[in-house]
C-alpha cells in the first residue's frame, strides 16, 4: 500500500521548506512529491504529479490560493485540500468551505499542529483509498468470473469477448496444478480446500511480486490455477521457488506448465483442457459445481487482506498503541463469531495482513519474498479455541513489533523526554504529557523510561524537583513556600515531607548547613 502524495504551494520559502522537512521523514505517512511558489506554477504540476493532497497558502503572487483551488476543482473535484493562512479571517474560512477544503492551518503553526492536521488528512485519504479498492475489487471479481467461465467452457456473455481479448493480448499463460495424490492422501474436503487455495494464492503472489513481476493468479478449479504474466517472465527459478514454497508450507507437490501465449478467447477452453491432460492424473471432464463460488470466495479473502492492511496503516499513523489494539480486538471478536472454516481463513487473512504491514512499515529492509506468509498456518484439525489463540498470538506479536518500531524511529526518545522534564518540572508534568510530546503510548513509555533511567517516571520527576529545590536552598534567600511553588508544589507542607524523604532532613535544616552532601 502506497503513501499519500502531497504538493505544497507556498510563496514563503522558509515556511515551505519547513513543511517539507516535517513531512519528508515519512512518519506521518505522506510523501512530498512537489512544491510551488504560486498557484499558476502549481496548476502546471497537478497533471504531472497527481498528488492526493494539496497544501496551499491563500495570499500568493500571480495566482492566489483561492483562485488556484477553484481551477483545481474543475479537473480534480475530489482532491484533498488544506488551506494555509496567516489570518484568522472568517471570510477566508467561508471561501475554504465553499471550495471543499478539508481544513485550515493557521500560521505560524507548531509541529504538533501540522501532525494533527496531517493525521486528519490521512484518515480521509485512507477512507478514500479503501473505497477505490472496493470498486477495483468489484471490477476484478467480474473479470475473474468471465475468464473462469471461458476457460471452463461455461456460458458467458459475448460482450465480454472484447475485454478479455484486450486483457490477454501478448500474455503468457501458466497452469499451476496441485498433485492429485497429495490432496487425496490428506482427505481434504471442499471446505478444507478454501484454506489451502487461499494460502497457496498468497504464496504465489508474494513470490511473483518479490521478483518485481506483475502477474494475475486465477483459481479455475479446486486444484488448478492459471497464472497470467508477460511473455518469458516466469523463468525456471521462479517456477522452482513456487514449487518449493508450495511443498514447504502446504506439503503439496505442484505441477507447473506453460500454456503458451494466450490464443483467441474462443480457443482458451480447448487449450486449458489439453494442458490439463498433460498430467497423468484422473481429471473430470466438466467443472465441479461450485468452482465459480470458490473463485469468488478466494477473491473476497484476498480483498479482506488488503482492507485490513489499509485499516492497520490508518491506525499506525495515529501513533498510538491503543488505536491498534482496539482494531485488533474488534477483528478477533468478529473472528470468534464465525464458523470453524471461516475462522481459519479469517485468522490466516489477519496474519498475512499483519506480516505484510510489519514488512512494509516496520522492517522495509526485509526483502524475503515470503515475509508476509506466517511460518505456521492454522491447521485444518485445530479446534475453535486453538485457531483463536493462534490469531491472538499473531496480534500480540504485531503490537510488540509496533512498540519496538516506535522506539527505534526516535533514537533519542529518552533524551527528548528528559529534556521535556527539565523544561517543565515546575508545572504539572504528567507522564501522559511527556508521552504525548514524544508520540508514545503512555503505558509503553512508562516501561521504556524506567528501563532506560532505572527510575519510575514519578520518582524521576520528584528527584529532579528535589535537586532543583536543594540548589535554590543553597544559593538563594527564597522562602520555603516560594521554593515549593517554583518547583511545582502547591502545598509547602507536602513539599517538606517529600524533601525529607529525599535528603533525610527538612529544607530548613538543609539550608542551615547540616547537609552531609
TrEMBL record:
Pfam families referenced in this protein's UniProt entry, alphabetically: HTH_18 (PF12833), Response_reg (PF00072)
GO molecular function per UniProt: DNA-binding transcription factor activity; sequence-specific DNA binding
One GO CC term, this protein: cytoplasm
SMART domains assigned: HTH_ARAC, REC
Keyword line: Cytoplasm, DNA-binding, Phosphoprotein, Transcription, Transcription regulation, Two-component regulatory system
Matching InterPro entries: CheY-like_superfamily (IPR011006), Homeodomain-like_sf (IPR009057), HptR (IPR051552), HTH_AraC (IPR018060), HTH_AraC-typ_CS (IPR018062), Sig_transdc_resp-reg_receiver (IPR001789), Tscrpt_reg_AraC-type_HTH (IPR020449)
UniProt signal peptide: none
Record-level GO BP terms: phosphorelay signal transduction system
SUPFAM superfamilies linked to this entry: CheY-like (SSF52172), Homeodomain-like (SSF46689)
Stated name of the protein: DNA-binding response regulator
Organism: Paenibacillus pectinilyticus
Amino acid at each position: 500500500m502506497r503513501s499519500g502524495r502531497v504538493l505544497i504551494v507556498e510563496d514563503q520559502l522558509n515556511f515551505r521548506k519547513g513543511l517539507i522537512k516535517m513531512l519528508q521523514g515519512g512518519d506521518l505517512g505522506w510523501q512530498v512529491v512537489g512544491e510551488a511558489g504560486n498557484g499558476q506554477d502549481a496548476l502546471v504540476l497537478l497533471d504531472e504529479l497527481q498528488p492526493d493532497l494539496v497544501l496551499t497558502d491563500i495570499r500568493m503572487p500571480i495566482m492566489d490560493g483561492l483562485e488556484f483551488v477553484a481551477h483545481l476543482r474543475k479537473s480534480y473535484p475530489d482532491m484533498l485540500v488544506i488551506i494555509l493562512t496567516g489570518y484568522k479571517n472568517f471570510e477566508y474560512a467561508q471561501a475554504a468551505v465553499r471550495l471543499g477544503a478539508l481544513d485550515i492551518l493557521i500560521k505560524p503553526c507548531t509541529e504538533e499542529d501540522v501532525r494533527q492536521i496531517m493525521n486528519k488528512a490521512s484518515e480521509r485519504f485512507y477512507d478514500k483509498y479503501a473505497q477505490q479498492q472496493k470498486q477495483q475489487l468489484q471490477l476484478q471479481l467480474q473479470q475473474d468470473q468471465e475468464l473462469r467461465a471461458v476457460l471452463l467452457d461455461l456460458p458467458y456473455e459475448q460482450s465480454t469477448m472484447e475485454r478479455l481479448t484486450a486483457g490477454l493480448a501478448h500474455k503468457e499463460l501458466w497452469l499451476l496444478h496441485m498433485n492429485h495424490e497429495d490432496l487425496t492422501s490428506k482427505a481434504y474436503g471442499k471446505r478444507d480446500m478454501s484454506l489451502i487455495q487461499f494460502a497457496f494464492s498468497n504464496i504465489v503472489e508474494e513470490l511473483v511480486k518479490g521478483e518485481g513481476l506483475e502477474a494475475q493468479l486465477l483459481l479455475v478449479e479446486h486444484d488448478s490455477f492459471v497464472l497470467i504474466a508477460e511473455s518469458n517472465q516466469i523463468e525456471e527459478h521462479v517456477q522452482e521457488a513456487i514449487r518449493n514454497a508450495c511443498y514447504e508450507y502446504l506439503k503439496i507437490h505442484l505441477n507447473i506448465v506453460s500454456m503458451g501465449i494466450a490464443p483467441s478467447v474462443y480457443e482458451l477452453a480447448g487449450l486449458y483442457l489439453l494442458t490439463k491432460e498433460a498430467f497423468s492424473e484422473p481429471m473430470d471432464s466438466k467443472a465441479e459445481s461450485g468452482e465459480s463460488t470458490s473463485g469468488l470466495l478466494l477473491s473476497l479473502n484476498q480483498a479482506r487482506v488488503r482492507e485490513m492492511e489499509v485499516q492497520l496503516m490508518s491506525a499506525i499513523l495515529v501513533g498510538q498503541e491503543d488505536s491498534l489494539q482496539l482494531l485488533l480486538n474488534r477483528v478477533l471478536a468478529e473472528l470468534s463469531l464465525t464458523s470453524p472454516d471461516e475462522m481459519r481463513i479469517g485468522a490466516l487473512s489477519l496474519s498475512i495482513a499483519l506480516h505484510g504491514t510489519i514488512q512494509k512499515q516496520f522492517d522495509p529492509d526485509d526483502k524475503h519474498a515470503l515475509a508476509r506468509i506466517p511460518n505456521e498456518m492454522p491447521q485444518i484439525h485445530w479446534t475453535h479455541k486453538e485457531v483463536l489463540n493462534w490469531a491472538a498470538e499473531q496480534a500480540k506479536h504485531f503490537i510488540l513489533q509496533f512498540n519496538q518500531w516506535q522506539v527505534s524511529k526516535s533514537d533519542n526518545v529518552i533524551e527528548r523526554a528528559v529534556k521535556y522534564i527539565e523544561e517543565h518540572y515546575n508545572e504539572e508534568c504528567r507522564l501522559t504529557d511527556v508521552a504525548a510530546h514524544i508520540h508514545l503510548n503512555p503505558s509503553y513509555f512508562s516501561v521504556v523510561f524506567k528501563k532506560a533511567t532505572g527510575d519510575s517516571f514519578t520518582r524521576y520527576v520528584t528527584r529532579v524537583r528535589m535537586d532543583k529545590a536543594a540548589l535554590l536552598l543553597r544559593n538563594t534567600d527564597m522562602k520555603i513556600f516560594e521554593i515549593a511553588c517554583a518547583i511545582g508544589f502547591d502545598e509547602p507542607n507536602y513539599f517538606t515531607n517529600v524533601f525529607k524523604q529525599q535528603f533525610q532532613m527538612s529544607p530548613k535544616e538543609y539550608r542551615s548547613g547540616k547537609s552531609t552532601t
